Amino acid sequence: MSGNTLGKSFRVTNYGESHGPAIGAVIDGCPPGLELSEQDIQFELDRRRPGTSRHVTQRREPDQVEILSGIYEGRTTGTPISLLIRNSDARSKDYGNLLDTFRPGHADYTYWKKFDNRDPRGGGRSSARLTAPTVAAGAIAKKWLAEHVGVKIRGYMSQLGPIAIPFKSWDMVEQNPFYAPDLDVVPQLEAYMDELRKEGESIGARIEVVAEGVPAGWGEPIYDRLDADIAHAMMGLNAVKGVSIGAGFDCITQKGSEHGDALYPDGFKTNQAGGVLGGISSGQAITVSLAIKPTASIRTLRPSINRAGEAVEVQTLGRHDPCVGIRATPIAEALLAIVLMDHCLRHRSQCGV
Amino acid sequence: MSGNTLGKSFRVTNYGESHGPAIGAVIDGCPPGLELSEQDIQFELDRRRPGTSRHVTQRREPDQVEILSGIYEGRTTGTPISLLIRNSDARSKDYGNLLDTFRPGHADYTYWKKFDNRDPRGGGRSSARLTAPTVAAGAIAKKWLAEHVGVKIRGYMSQLGPIAIPFKSWDMVEQNPFYAPDLDVVPQLEAYMDELRKEGESIGARIEVVAEGVPAGWGEPIYDRLDADIAHAMMGLNAVKGVSIGAGFDCITQKGSEHGDALYPDGFKTNQAGGVLGGISSGQAITVSLAIKPTASIRTLRPSINRAGEAVEVQTLGRHDPCVGIRATPIAEALLAIVLMDHCLRHRSQCGV
Amino acid sequence: MSGNTLGKSFRVTNYGESHGPAIGAVIDGCPPGLELSEQDIQFELDRRRPGTSRHVTQRREPDQVEILSGIYEGRTTGTPISLLIRNSDARSKDYGNLLDTFRPGHADYTYWKKFDNRDPRGGGRSSARLTAPTVAAGAIAKKWLAEHVGVKIRGYMSQLGPIAIPFKSWDMVEQNPFYAPDLDVVPQLEAYMDELRKEGESIGARIEVVAEGVPAGWGEPIYDRLDADIAHAMMGLNAVKGVSIGAGFDCITQKGSEHGDALYPDGFKTNQAGGVLGGISSGQAITVSLAIKPTASIRTLRPSINRAGEAVEVQTLGRHDPCVGIRATPIAEALLAIVLMDHCLRHRSQCGV
Amino acid sequence: MSGNTLGKSFRVTNYGESHGPAIGAVIDGCPPGLELSEQDIQFELDRRRPGTSRHVTQRREPDQVEILSGIYEGRTTGTPISLLIRNSDARSKDYGNLLDTFRPGHADYTYWKKFDNRDPRGGGRSSARLTAPTVAAGAIAKKWLAEHVGVKIRGYMSQLGPIAIPFKSWDMVEQNPFYAPDLDVVPQLEAYMDELRKEGESIGARIEVVAEGVPAGWGEPIYDRLDADIAHAMMGLNAVKGVSIGAGFDCITQKGSEHGDALYPDGFKTNQAGGVLGGISSGQAITVSLAIKPTASIRTLRPSINRAGEAVEVQTLGRHDPCVGIRATPIAEALLAIVLMDHCLRHRSQCGV
Fold first, then answer.
1. Which of B63, B75, B95 minimizes the C-alpha distance to B30?
2. Interface ipTM
3. Is B212 on the interface with C (CB under 8 A)?
């Protein structure tokens, strides 16, 4: 059984390894007629790209995307769109000492148990580098949803380790490398990250993603609910350990009168539901939270085992993100876009197809 | 597009409405040779059944399951297993006044926007009654996994509204109607629920589900990860607003050295990962948490609108669960069983098929 | 892996065994708003029903369908439609002597090799009885396509063993038990069948199915072409050994100028393509031919083996169709309806959804 | 809805247009551990390649495949295998005059009706050039099946227009550009083709494909039968108008005693079934026949219409295959390999996984 395809109507098939020749995605199901250029996709890839600030991995990848199919005279034709990103800065030697060892918190051990072999170069397929094709595919979904339905998808970081980040404005989000919605907190975040790097440590984070303009009526009653598909996509992202919608885990202590959003002739006035009721969109903003674990790659020596099952100590050198959460915002946006596009196509009268 | 099927290799298709003639499921993909009787399934259905204590809905449903296919001489044949549960105690008149009105926090509004019509009797398809076929299907998965792989799936309530429930023992879980793992807390839970019923209110809860004995190697690297599929199944359950694995949202404030579970020659000693690394099972216990919202059906008058968009006030009478979380434990166990069985079948050498 | 579901957007999941408690289907993806009663479905089931003439199996089955879900106040709601048909006249003893033996031309041997066990009563799941749920599901697709798109699906027998049946009129088709489009040939067909029964033999047949009114534009370019999905559905029908579209195998000797249907401002004037070009409907009638093998159940003694691999002789008594082709017409119509409905739903602007 | 993926367990997603930058496929589900190089795939691509004799299109394409992912140190890792073939000899001007016109027998008209736009360069996605990624993917399936199960898949041409080609030997098949199993007929075939080219005409053909060594037990009882999936794959190939298994359309005139293959302790002695009984492989050779229509691209002037619906005359110049059947043999082999691999993976105990 495979498993590398996301979506049923808008299908994204992801391929590639961190240090193989290339990574990419084939998108099957994009409707014809969308104006689409490599620049449209590049814009989102650049938001995710490594090496853009001192707080993320220093691997230098241009992440230049090439569209191989599905476009004619600047517009989608309705046939599969193949996206190719060549790997360029692949220093495999950085990982050479890890061939035989399982890094704690990494997928090394589980890949080996599943496949009996693995590509150890840069984590192979388990590398966060494989989120680039997802971002590229999401860029297409995002553009379609914006132009044909008026959906706006944005995200931000709401917490970095112990530092909660209050929401001040969407404008601030793109003005700092953390996707923090409050510029005043940024110096504190930078100081925290500088300290962390010195320690050779990593840290978790919390990301919020919001989709506005989704019409009521998207989703299915049972199993393939809109919120279920969002949870699937988000929990499928490297390092995510928790997903919630609307009030999320706060609903545990809420009473019914507090949680249930009242309806008024001019719409809802609260959004505890996070835009989904009974698995179907309500027309309110869809609000999603993600818990992102600290990167497993740390310089600290850790106890582990090798393939023979013997005790060893592991230290991960190479170039890594001390907080994968920092680059997670554009990826989470892309995933939400893909899920929404997938459901949009099942409700074509609302989707403009 | 449909959406009422869970799983790819072990496929559960769910049908029915709360007050229609029957509810049920067709399970496609169960391997041949499993000893299976209606009693096996009934046992799990009875754990979920309404009307068993004063803290849950007083609707009386025997929930008697009939196996229509897929069994010959007491064993599965490998062909689809069709399970039928007749609805008996369907007092549709209880809901008559809600035909034209949307209950806040319910799927009434979103179903109407999606389908342009809906079966209002007892919430129709959005009723929690439709979790019964899921539980029945899960009973089959649970039995297979226990007998062929040695997987043990159990759950409990860890919080009811403001009351945290410490874990004392698995034995206690089945000895009280809350699935609480500490009998000492039960009187406090009962008092809380009695008060709540008087108020005509409802409350949220937190459920934990654990699968022990899952071999390392189940799951797929990208998108159809084991944790992603678990999140999909759980978030697809009525009233769930949050799902987490292992450390869950606590990982936000964890450092890498704290979160990453070290490997030792005799196995892991911590389980921050919750049994899944890089989307693939690690051989540790798989630990899942669910946040369950308070029931939307409350006696309190709430502002809402009718189909004409005019302001109305709604009060839900009928028979309801003031805390759907109370009956959620066996359902969450069933969902985890279905997802694990689905992945088991993709790794047949480990699954005994 | 499962396999008992037909369609991607209009999904029919089939369950049951010939002599188990019941057979049926769950249809997921039927749009809301279709007027639908048990009578609508019964009409098509009665066309397929056994025991209606001396030329088909004398098994007496009322084949009474019950709708268990998906309907409210006489209309589909958009949720799964569950259809139940109880088995009543199940004389299992007729097959008792075959428990250990593989009947030549039957699926006995292959089921045993695949599943390691099998339900031998009446062929279990391999019985042609399992086409009843397909016909029931097809009745829904047929009704939708007729009412919402104006598609008309009809079929007839064009050859019975050595006897070619010329096409005279659609009216004649429903006036004889063979679905022959020429009443003058019927006496010849009856005499042939009477002779065949005396011999204890069976015979093949050829069926034609035609869908008129399908708009241009249904189908996908590669792999899931409309003709590919038709071939899949038809070859999935018991006893079918060949499927063709339009000119079919005659195209082997055709030249390009003869085969390619010229386009004129007022439409096509020939239909060698059978209504499909490049996998996509052209707006012409879709024409499909099926080759149906002679029933494997014959009274003649045949050499075979038992489960121990020893030589035995087998004679099939019980009640059988000496020509399964006779009852194949309504089934083939149902399959074409399901495939067309499945593609219709992917082109909603044309489908009225 | 998409549609460009073949298979459920071994999934081949095909992308590209005849004159776009590249064509290719992503294969998801190939088990780990298979030795695989670009040479292995190139061998099959070269068998299909255009420009290899005067009887096929003179387009010169090296069809050089590049493996982008899924391989580490010469072996598959179990992750998706991405295959890239650059288009090099794309003379788009050859087709310029056809931008506005629909060529009879081509998909021009139906694509335009479906997508509202199309890539007219070389037929865009409807070009037979898109069979190259299928052949490349099939090469992997073929190699796996040969090495792990001992399955041998071969094909040949059995008829070219009016000329029937008797089967003499497998050895002869690869010694002539027609894949004819009788070298003595080759001069006649060459003379026929030379004459045809002078006329500016095209012709149909019949292809046989045979898989030996398939164990009994592959396939599913209903709908996703092995023969149904074979029919789906084959009818999904450009220009195929008919597919049959075993006796095929000859079964129409067969009696039961003639068609049903008797079983003996040392196996079957006839193979009317073509290796499939009740949708499941019987252990005999799987034998498939295809009817391939004459190429639609002919030099003869044909009546047609343009996008405005006005009458025009069309003549197809460019470089074309006067008999697409000539290059169809390796493609049909690839499709059969993909379908068998897909079913193999659902029966892992027999598949060596």
1. B75
2. 0.95
3. no
